[in-house]
Amino acid sequence: MSAHVHLMHHGHVGGAWKRWLVELSVFVLAAVGFYFGIANWTEGEFEMGLMVFGWFLGPAITYAFGYLWLPPDSLNELPLDQSRSMRQRWSDFVLLATFVAILVIAAAYARAIWRNYSYASVPFAVALVFVSCSLLAACAVASEKYLSWTMPEAIARTIFGWRTQIRSAVRIWGTWVLNLLGVKRAVVVGALLALLSLTIVVSGTIFGPEYRGYEIVAGNESWATVEGIDQPALQTFLLRTHRAVYVLGLFVAILALVRILPWQRLRSISGGRTLATMAGAIALFEITDIAIGNIMLQMLRSGLVIALWLLIWFVPVATWLTRALDSQANRDRTHLAVMVFYLPVFFNGFAFWVLHAYFSFGYGIFVAGMLLLWWGIVQDEHDLRRQQTRTLSV
Q1: How many Å is the Cα radius of gyration of the chain?
Q2: What angle separates helix 315-322 from helix 328-359, to the nearest 10 degrees?
Q3: CA nearest 341: which of 10, 15, 22, 78?
Q4: Which residue, 160, 148, 44, is CA-closest to 91?
Q5: How far, in Å, are 6, 98, 169, 339, 346 from residue 134 at the CA level?
Q6: pLDDT of 372
Q7: Separation CA 70–CA 77 (nearest Å)
Q8: Is the sign of the CA dihedral 62, 68, 74, 75 positive or negative?
Q9: Is 387 exposed, middle or buried (0-12, 13-18, 19+ CB in 10 A)?
Q10: C-alpha to C-alpha distance for 297 and 221, rounded to whole angstroms
Q11: Which parts of 149-182 fold into alpha helices (H)?
Q12: What does each C-alpha distance from 17 to 14, 24, 30, 360 come to in angstroms?
């Protein structure tokens, strides 16, 4: 009887509308992907058709597995496998999904490099693909580490098989990248990459004339992903927004470098939390911008694009923040739901980051730098909190 009551109030009935919303979203994404993909194929645009398939079917598949199968806790539903904690199910899901995304990215760029072999810089392109896949693996492991600070690790049965071996390989790869960077090194490398973008091409040949970061700061030129938009109202909005975000990112990089100086012993947790929030917001903003892409901007009207921005960026972040003061269980479920939501955004973002970084290296290192900067500050903040807790306990 108690199990039935728990199911009625916290299980499938309580989260029914969320399940219906997810199912509808998956159906719409898949339908749009097939429609535009086949439409491009019939017009002879085979490459564009494949790109559209990845754009829409990738998120549809990710949400179908992420919300409806592996970690249904985010929808307030009872998981089928209750022997594994919410954190363990996220780990299983994100590592396997990241492996599939890495395969798709590697295969897509192998085809692109082969087709453009005669005039492409193959070593540079291959290096960017490797860095993109490495950052994806590192993000997957970083998400595990982040959840380990808030969610307990439950004892679960050991799982064997090829999927476990794949997850272990991705975890080893991502852990190697994070250990290679460390805490302070991640901050230093991230901040230096962001600042280095001032003197390197930020808007490259694929978007128009070559401009450097200091020209963007001065307001003389356009941000890389804004050029080519033929919608004046949207372009004006994005020009101002991207310039402000870029300047803020450079400011955060300078503050982060000053904060970890060897003689800087009095680092406050509140200051680190503020910097981490700003760096994370900037990294998420840029990755989301890459994931949406210029082609998406050309497919939709400016009003729909702005609505898409609000859906992808502001709504989940607002949900995360409003649940910050909720109960631990609701907060964990909300965080997991938001992380599942952004997972395909990161997949698409890093897939197209390779192309952007190839033609606009300054833009690519700025995005990667802000991501590393965010992770380094978050780790440093966690270490400071743990040290203070240890000191108080003694």
Answers
A1: 22
A2: 150
A3: 22
A4: 148
A5: 42, 10, 12, 19, 13
A6: 93
A7: 11
A8: positive
A9: exposed
A10: 20
A11: 162-181
A12: 8, 10, 20, 43
Q: Which two tokens stand for residue 219?
A: 């307001």
Distance from C-alpha of 268 to C-alpha of 243, rounded to nearest angstrom: 29
Burial (CB count <10 Å: 0-12, 13-18, 19+), residue 214: middle
pLDDT over 70, % of the chain = 76
Whole-number Å distance between alpha carbons of 175 and 139: 10
Is the CB of residue 145 less than 8 Å from the CB of residue 77? no
Confidence of residue 293 (pLDDT cuts 50, 70, 90): low
Q: Residue 380 above 90 pLDDT?
A: no
Q: For 109-153, what is each residue's pLDDT tens digit? A: 998 888 888 888 899 999 999 999 999 999 999 988 888 887 766
Q: Are 136 and 350 in contact (CB under 8 A)?
A: yes
Q: Which residues contact 349 (CB under 8 A, 6 or more apart)?
A: 287, 288, 290, 291
CA distance 26 to 57: 9
Q: Which among 184-188, 236-240, 388-392 has the top mean pLDDT?
A: 184-188
Q: How confident is the model at residue 22 (pLDDT cuts 50, 70, 90)?
A: confident
For residues 94 and 86, the answer to whether their CB atoms sit within 8 Å is no
Write the single-letter amino acid at 47. Answer: E
Q: Which residue ranges make up each domain of the chain? A: 1-79, 81-181, 182-394
> Measuring CA to CA, which residue among 315, 317, 334 is closest to residue 326?
334
Q: Distance between CA atoms of 211 and 276, rounded to whole angstroms?
A: 29
CB atoms within 10 A of CB 17: 10
- β-partners of residue 286 are none
- Determine the distance from the C-alpha atom of residue 42 to the mean position of all C-alpha atoms in its chain, rounded to a whole number: 32
pLDDT digits (tens, 9 = 90+) for 23-53: 888 888 888 888 878 887 787 777 777 777 7
d(CA 312, CA 63): 14
Mean of the per-residue pLDDT values of the chain:
78
Residue 362's contacts (CB-CB under 8 Å, 6 or more residues apart) are 196, 197, 198, 199, 200, 201, 202, 212, 213
Q: In 43-121, where does DSSP find H-type helix?
A: 46-68, 86-115
Q: Is the pLDDT of residue 185 over 80?
A: yes
3-state secondary structure of 143: helix
